[in-house]
Fold this sequence. Notes:
It contains 2 helices and 8 strands. It is α+β, with helices and mostly antiparallel strands.
Amino acid sequence: MSCENKRWLIIGVVLIAMLLSGCNSVPVTREACLGSYSFVDASGMRTAKLTLNSDGTFVSTFVPAEGVSRIMPKGHWTFHISGEYAQVFLEDSAFPITRSSKQVRILINDDLGQWFEKTD
Length: 120
């Protein structure tokens, strides 16, 4: 294969990869953030719930293994977007938020597989 053909092959593969990676991305809006979320960790356990209300308040609920829910912090949340990156601020703490065609996630620690996943 000539150098010219290799170059076009590489360009084609890169373009296809770029197109495919963009297919799952959906812009995040404040309205898309509203609603209830369940905390998910690498084990798949859902031990907490978070609700983002349209008036800018949030409520979080802890659900321990014994199953008795208790309301934890309440506060204010805001939505910020900068270029392609969206964040939800819960009081003073910022968390990236992602949206695909199937789900909205508030990332707590993506490396450890921890996030809040929208349930409604």
